[in-house]
Amino acid sequence: MEDDDIKTTCPCQHILNPEDPSVCSLCHAPIPIIQQLLTETSQYEQQIRQLQEQLDVEQTRIDDQLQSIANLKESLTKVTSELDEKTSDFESLQNEMELLNDKYVDEIERVAEIQHSKDMVESELEDLSRRLFEEANGMVAHEKRQKHDLQVAQRHLENQLRETRERLGAEQMQLKELRKRMEDMTTDDSNLQQQQQQQHHHQYQQDQSFANIVPVPKAAAATTEPNIDTMLLDEFRDFVKTGTKVSLKKIHMIPFLKNCQEEEVEACLRFGPNNRLSIRKMTEAIVMNTCFIEEAPPGFHEEQAKRTVIDAPLKISAAATKMWERLSNNSSSHPQATVFSGCQACGRNDGTSLPYRFRISYFDDWACIDRFCRDRLVAVCEFYVLIRNIRQGLYSNRPINDLYHEAMRLRLQMFYAR
Q1: Residue 368 phi/psi, 5° resolution?
Q2: What local confidence, expressed as pLDDT, does residue 79 receive?
Q3: Which of 195, 219, 355, 366 is the most buried (most CB within 10 A)?
Q4: pLDDT at residue 89 tops 80
Q5: Are 128 and 122 within 8 A, CB to CB?
Q6: Is the model's pLDDT at 404 over the cut of 60?
Q7: Whole-number Å distance between alpha carbons of 205 and 288
Q8: What order do you get walking across the sheet with 292-295 strand by strand?
């Protein structure tokens, strides 16, 4: 109560206006000190608001910087992880490079070893070729010397044979004269007849001894049959005499074989209108005995027909490829085209069985042929087997007529085969 009385009795309660403390309630005059205090208070409040705004701005900036720091830390973490990955990749690449370098060094050493081996093989090959040529030259020279010695011995034996035949002819003439005298003296007495018989017997024994020493060749005693063409027989006889002096490559220059080639061999090796083989190459291979004919294994033709022209073409040295086939084989428009599946000789491709195959070189592929083309090839091969045997002197003990009939039989066989 006392306090309330004091407040009501205090003069400030009558001086200060609650609504406007800066004005005196008694005189209504402004109070300077209070106005100054209010002014300072408003200034301080203004400063406080400005400072609060600055504090808010700085706080916002601090928050932004903290967010930036967090982002930078996150970026630093990512960059660090990427750097670790790159470092790991770099180390792995460096290890792989070291491995590749080691492999490169090993490959260089291996190439050097291969080159050294190649040089050694080439040196050995050159040495072997040189020795082979030297041996071949030595064999040729030795063969020439032997041939010369054999020719000298042959001439010597021919001279001896000629002298022996002359002596035999003289003895045969004497024998004929003795026989004639014996026929004229049939009326003489028995003693003279017995003496002549003894002389005849003695002469006959001498003739038999000469005949055993030097037998007369059957070809010389044989007479020409009436049904043989003498001109062809003379050509064949010339071939038998001169065939050994002519090489196999020039053997068709002999008239008899030239006629046989033109009349029979070429006709037999001309396998119809779609012939796929070269007659010249086949003839040369058969003459040189490099033509091989055999039965084809089961399924060989079907397996060969699956080969493509681009990947695995057939290599046949005797083939006479047509221009349009060569262009079609080289064309890229049919990369999966297969090889010709018909007979490689006559070109027949109508499903005929191809049970045989042939080739003229070890480096060739086997070429499938039918039975009819095989008969043609076999007929020509058998004819040239006889020619080679005659040329080598294997039939020197047979009469010339027998050899001629055998040659004619083989020519007829070529005719029947075609």
Answers
A1: -80, 135
A2: 92
A3: 366
A4: yes
A5: no
A6: yes
A7: 50
A8: 292-295, 356-359, 367-369
